[in-house]
Each structure stands twice: as structure tokens, then as C-alpha cells.
């Protein structure tokens, strides 16, 4: 295999790119907190994905680069690719990933996949996108996809984090959706962004699971409670959120969907390591 010139920390180096892998360039990095950041990379012309899917990414380091699953947070029509990431101290990938600079090389596997896609849901009227932490990433993609607004009348994006600073990315992408040339009009009229915190004091506090079970999510928004007939749900967050939401939905008769068998809700774990 032939070595290619890559960039690491602003310095050129030779590296053998693994098979079925793109080597792309970082074009933007924004740090939100000491735990969260987003970055954008160039998009290979041949790379296709559906909004909501994830892809494996890594860095050109060592003999066997470490790859981790990352939801793509930019919409499928965008000519760059965006990711929203946690920074894990001593995390095998994020320890290094959090130090990337514009111009550095990112490795990305050629195939995207995942269940948080519109194809895995039966037709419905309202779409609830339930997220905690970096679990908002796939939804940041979906709320900027015109197909989401073609398939659903109302989209409710919920984002729960410990502190206010952790919610910033969600506010930014909801604003971008509202101003977007493709979906701005629909998003302004039909997308509701509902952010809650669990530790720092804000107007809306509590775990989203609690706010669904005690109906306060619906009474606060002035909307009907969940019903399987018209509602579809996507879930992405911590293991605890995913399990608790599954229990809540299945108690109300919702069935889990997949690419091959669309149903009422879909779930995926947010990237963790
Ligand atoms: P909490 O502060 O009550 O644990 P983390 O930063 O640990 O990934 O958590 C992100 C957010 O997800 C926090 O607000 C956290 O609330 C919330 N969370 C954690 N576990 C659950 C769960 N089982 N159901 C709902 N929300 C959860």
C-alpha cells in the first residue's frame, strides 16, 4: 500500500490510508465547553448518506487507527460534513480528536448506516426527536432535511443536558434550520425546539422521561399527549435514556422500527468513547 501525505497538528507526515477509508480535511472547529465541540470536514464527492445516519471516523495515528461511530450532524445535501463530539479524558479517540486543527486530516469510512432515518418510521403526523447530550447530532441533520417536513406536520426536538452551556449546539442548529434557504420557512412554522436542564437552573428543568410521564412536556407546549396513531419517535442519548424511553413508548403500544421493518419509534445510542 502507498503512503499519502496527511496533516497532523498542522505538520505534514506520510501515512498509509486503510482500505475503504476517505482521508478528509478539517475545515472548521468550534469548542463549546471543556466537554463538547463540533468540527466540519470536506466531503468526498462519492460519499452518500441519509440524514440521521452515522459513520466511523478516526485519526491517522498508529498502525491500526482507532475508529468510532459518529452521527453526521449536517444534512444530507450539505457539501461539508459536520460532527458534534464529546471530549472524554483518556478516550482512545476523543483525547486526540479534541486537539484537531483546521487543515488536519480525518479518516472516515466510506459507508454510512443507522436506524435514525425517516425510512425506518411508518407515516405519521408528529415527529418527536428525543435527545440527551451529543445525542442531538443526528437530529441536527434531520431538522435541516426537506424530507422531514414533507413527511411530518410537526417536529418536536427535545434536548436535555446537565447545564445551560451544553445546550448551545442545539440552539445554534435550531436557529440555522429556521434561517435555512431550503427548510427555513417550514422549520420556522413547524419545528419546536424544547431544551431542558437537569442540574443548572433554567425555565424548563427535568429529565425528558419525567416530563413525558407526568405530561408536563405536552401541557407546557400546549399539545396533545403521545399517541401511537399519529406520533413517531426517534431517541438518541445515553444508555439510560434509551432504555427508559423504550419502556415508556412500549407501555403506550409503540413498536420499534428498523430499515427493513418501519414502525413507530427508532433508537440509537449516542457516541460515548
Ligand atoms: P441527570 O443530570 O439527571 O443525570 P450525561 O451528561 O450524563 O450524558 O447526561 C446528559 C443528560 O441526560 C443529563 O441531563 C442527564 O440527567 C440525562 N439523563 C441521564 N440518564 C437519563 C435517563 N435514564 N433518562 C432521561 N435522562 C437521562
How is this fold's topology laid out?
Elements: E1 3-8, E2 11-16, E3 21-31, E4 36-42, E5 54-58, E6 67-71, E7 80-86, H1 94-97, E8 105-109, E9 126-132, H2 137-142, H3 146-151, E10 154-161, H4 168-179, H5 184-190, E11 191-197, H6 208-213, H7 216-221, E12 231-237, H8 239-251, E13 265-269
Parallel strand pairs: 9-10, 9-12, 10-11, 12-13
Antiparallel strand pairs: 1-2, 3-4, 3-8, 4-7, 5-6, 5-8
Helix pairs in contact: 4-5
The structure holds adenosine-2'-5'-diphosphate.
Describe this structure in words.
The two termini are 30 Å apart. This protein has 2 domains: 2-109, Beta Barrel (Elongation Factor Tu (Ef-tu), domain 3), CATH 2.40.30.10; 118-267, Rossmann fold. The strands form 3 sheets. A 6-stranded antiparallel β-sheet has the order 6-5-8-3-4-7, with no helix packed on it. The protein has a 5-stranded parallel β-sheet with strand order 11-10-9-12-13, sandwiched between helices. The model has no long low-confidence stretch (mean pLDDT 96). With 273 residues, the chain is an alpha/beta fold. It has 8 helices and 13 strands. 22% of the residues lie in helices and 32% in strands. Helix 4 crosses helix 5 (184-190). The site of adenosine-2'-5'-diphosphate (A2P) has 14 residues, from strand 10, helix 6 and helix 8.
Amino acid at each position: 500500500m502507498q503512503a499519502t501525505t496527511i496533516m497532523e497538528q498542522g505538520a505534514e507526515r506520510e501515512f498509509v490510508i486503510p482500505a475503504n477509508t476517505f482521508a478528509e480535511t478539517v475545515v472548521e472547529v468550534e469548542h463549546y465547553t471543556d466537554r463538547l465541540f463540533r468540527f466540519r470536514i470536506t466531503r468526498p464527492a462519492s460519499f452518500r448518506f441519509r440524514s440521521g445516519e452515522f459513520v466511523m471516523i478516526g485519526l491517522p495515528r498508529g498502525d491500526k487507527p482507532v475508529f468510532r461511530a459518529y452521527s453526521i450532524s449536517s444534512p444530507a445535501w450539505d457539501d461539508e460534513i459536520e460532527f458534534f463530539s464529546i471530549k472524554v479524558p483518556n478516550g482512545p479517540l476523543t483525547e486526540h480528536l479534541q486537539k484537531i486543527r483546521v487543515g488536519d486530516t480525518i479518516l472516515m469510512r466510506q459507508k454510512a448506516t443507522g436506524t435514525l432515518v425517516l425510512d425506518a418510521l411508518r407515516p405519521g403526523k408528529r415527529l418527536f426527536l428525543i435527545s440527551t447530550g451529543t445525542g442531538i447530532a443526528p437530529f441536527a441533520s434531520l431538522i435541516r432535511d426537506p424530507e422531514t417536513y414533507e413527511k411530518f406536520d410537526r417536529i418536536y426536538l427535545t434536548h436535555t443536558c446537565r447545564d445551560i452551556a451544553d445546550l448551545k449546539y442545539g440552539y445554534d442548529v435550531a436557529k440555522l434550520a429556521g434561517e435555512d434557504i431550503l427548510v427555513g420557512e417550514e422549520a420556522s412554522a413547524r419545528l419546536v425546539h424544547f431544551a431542558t436542564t437537569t442540574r443548572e437552573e433554567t425555565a424548563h428543568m427535568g429529565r425528558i422521561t419525567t416530563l413525558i410521564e407526568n405530561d408536563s412536556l405536552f401541557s407546557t407546549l400546549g399539545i396533545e399527549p403521545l399517541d401511537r396513531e399519529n406520533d413517531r419517535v426517534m431517541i438518541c442519548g445515553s444508555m439510560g435514556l434509551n432504555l427508559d424511553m423504550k419502556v415508556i413508548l412500549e407501555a403506550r403500544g409503540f413498536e420499534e422500527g428498523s430499515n427493513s421493518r418501519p414502525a413507530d419509534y427508532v433508537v440509537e445510542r449516542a457516541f460515548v468513547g
